[in-house]
Amino acid sequence: MIKSLTDRVGCFKVMKVPNPWGPLTHHWEKRLVNITKNIGTTDRAIRGVAGIALIALTVTGNLGPWGWIGIVPLATAILSWCPAYTLFGFKTCKD
């Protein structure tokens, strides 16, 4: 139980802040709310087409259940944000 506004749990500082996912959040969860665009237009188009193609092939039975992985590139295209790009510091969009 949190006794004050901030407590330390391991190496994370737990802060009591209002957020839609619950009353408690870690500093890294707060960062996920502020997603900055890191995927450019061409990259988005390629990811969107690839994601839709994989999902369509799975729905039609031409590809096994692994085709549902197409949700990942489709979601990153919709959000214009890739967590792997953030992790490695890549950015394909213009500032």
Automatic annotation (TrEMBL):
Swiss-Prot/TrEMBL keywords: Membrane, Transmembrane, Transmembrane helix
Domain Inner membrane protein YgaP-like transmembrane: residue ranges: 36-94
Domain of life of the source: Bacteria
A UniProt-annotated Pfam family: YgaP-like_TM
Record-annotated membrane-spanning stretches: 45-63, 69-90
Protein known as: DUF2892 family protein
